[in-house]
Design brief:
The structure is a homodimer. Chain A has about 160 residues and is α+β, with helices and mostly antiparallel strands. Chain A has helices at about 30-35, 40, 130-140, 140-160; strands spanning about 10, 20-25, 50-60, 65-70, 75-85, 90-100, 105-115, 120-125. The first copy, chain A, is globular. The interface of A and B includes residues 63 and 84 of A.
């Protein structure tokens, strides 16, 4: 199996306060989906390498919810949300709040597209209620965390 | 107690695909909040008079979810979503899907503001990912349903 790193495309929408992230993976939708729903797999890749992920709960089903922490030494960063809809191997729609900004909330949609030949395109959109909030999110350094997380996901998919 | 009907203000945001609904009620926040969270009360007012509401489940707490039907004769319209955050007497953040448009989803925030003198201002925003979807929602006739629902809520608050 190759360990080539694919490009992660991160783009802001010109018309609405939304960020769109696109990334291809060398694994079929079933496998990429499972890496998003099984907390034992999620904990291995979500976020940058410098942070350790600790899951409080991760009940990835329609009507479920989640909370996790990213930990670096003494620092803990909490995140939580609810799963609006989970369609196996197709789509996850969820909410997302970074607890240091407790009034902020994003509506996220993760779409798993079968590219054939055991490959999957992941398209993840994140919608918020103002351009200022969207641009602050992009400026926060999320890009490197997202890219690094997807590189770790490549590794999880290779190993599984 | 007066039965005066207050104005419901429904406004589209000029910059983002969001609808903002504002309405005052002659009841304190605790009471207006309870009418949003207790399914035995919700069923009495949510939606226009011409539809009967049937609740499948309504678990209004952070991380909970809901599903209900609006029924008119043989016609049934389903709605479901998840409760991202429920702060008692302050705010409810939830998702919303009309099941006839299963890929559509709105992120809603309902804020309960204490106006003093036993009055509450309800500010409800609904965010979607395109102006076309937002404008279709407004054009769907939701305005009369919202206004009538809030008139029914006045009655529930007077009776309780």
């Amino acid at each position: 199996m190759t360990t080539k790193t694919r490009e992660t495309d991160i783009a802001v929408d010109p018309d609405v306060p939304l960020v769109r992230i696109t990334r291809d993976f060398d694994a079929p939708p079933e496998k990429v989906f499972r890496a998003h729903t099984d907390p034992d797999l999620v904990v291995q890749w979500l976020g940058p390498r410098s942070l350790q992920m600790r899951i409080d709960h991760y009940d990835c089903r329609t009507g479920g919810s989640y909370r996790y922490l990213h930990v670096r030494g003494q620092d803990e960063f909490g995140f939580h949300g609810s799963f609006h809809e989970v369609r196996p191997n197709k789509v996850i729609v969820q909410t997302f709040t970074f607890e240091s900004d407790p009034d902020g909330v994003a509506l996220e949609r993760i779409v798993f597209t079968d590219l054939g030949d055991g490959r999957t395109r992941l398209t993840s959109t994140s919608l918020v209620d103002s351009f200022a909030a969207r641009d602050a999110f992009v400026a926060s350094g999320m890009e490197s965390g997202v890219r690094e997380g997807y590189e770790r996901l490549d590794e999880v998919l290779s190993a599984a």
